[in-house]
Amino acid sequence: MHGPLVLVPHDPADGPSPSPAQQRRHAAAPDNLVNLYARALEGNADALAKLGVSSPEQITVIDAREAAPLHLYLMQPDGHTERYAVGGNDKAHRWIDGKLGEAYSVPTNACSVQAYAVIYSAAPIDQRPNRVAQKALGLKTLRYGPVVLAPTGQADPSPTHQRLDEALSGNAAARAELGIIADW
After folding, report:
1. Residue 62, CB half-sphere, CA atoms under 13 Å: how many?
2. What single DSSP character describes residue 46?
3. 52: region left, alpha or beta (phi > 0 left; psi from -120 to 50 alpha)
4. CA-CA to 174 of 20 to 30 Å: which in 7, 26, 127, 163?
5. What is the pLDDT of residue 9?
6. Closest listed residue to residue 183, CA positions, set 80, 58, 78, 66
7. Nearest to 136 by CA among 109, 105, 158, 104
């Protein structure tokens, strides 16, 4: 099976279990509870009235999906890149502190990629210019030593971000183009 599933218990008092075709017809019916809620959340007045509410804000939605893992990336000047699965803000801060020491964030207007905050060391031990990060992130000012990329949660349709995302997701051509060396 692929994609999200809705599991609804079948009450034996309702008769024999419906066939898959009957279940599909029922799921597509406009009075189906799932469809009713979906329409109400879109602001459909009839669906809202059937549920006894006047606006979508009066419906509590509980999203039980497991959150996609968030990763921090440490990009070295030579392109070697580490990935760290974020296990909460405190752990993320400790990881960044351990890698960079005292750190600052690059202002958003100095970076083409908005999906990541760019964090750099105030006094990098490695004094090499990080041209890989500059190219991959569209940085307007050169940073020295390693930088950490921290997800901001913003959607970023920019071509720069799309190429970086391809590289971080394993696209060999994008990694070669940007100079990123990763082992995940």
Report:
1. 1
2. H
3. left
4. 127
5. 66
6. 80
7. 158
Which residues lie below 8 Å from residue 155, measured CB to CB, with a gap of 6+?
115
Q: What are the start-end ranges of the E strands in the chain?
A: 71-75, 80-85, 103-105, 116-121, 147-151, 181-182
Segment 93-128, tens digit of pLDDT? 999 999 999 999 999 999 999 999 999 999 999 999
Non-local (6+) Cβ contacts of 179 within 8 A are: 79, 131, 132, 135, 136
Mean pLDDT of 63-88: 89
Tokens 């997701």 appear where? 169
Hey, what are 116's tokens? 């990541």
Reported as a single tens digit per residue, the pLDDT across 128-168 is 999 999 999 999 999 999 999 999 989 999 999 999 999 99
Distance CA 153, CA 134 (A): 21
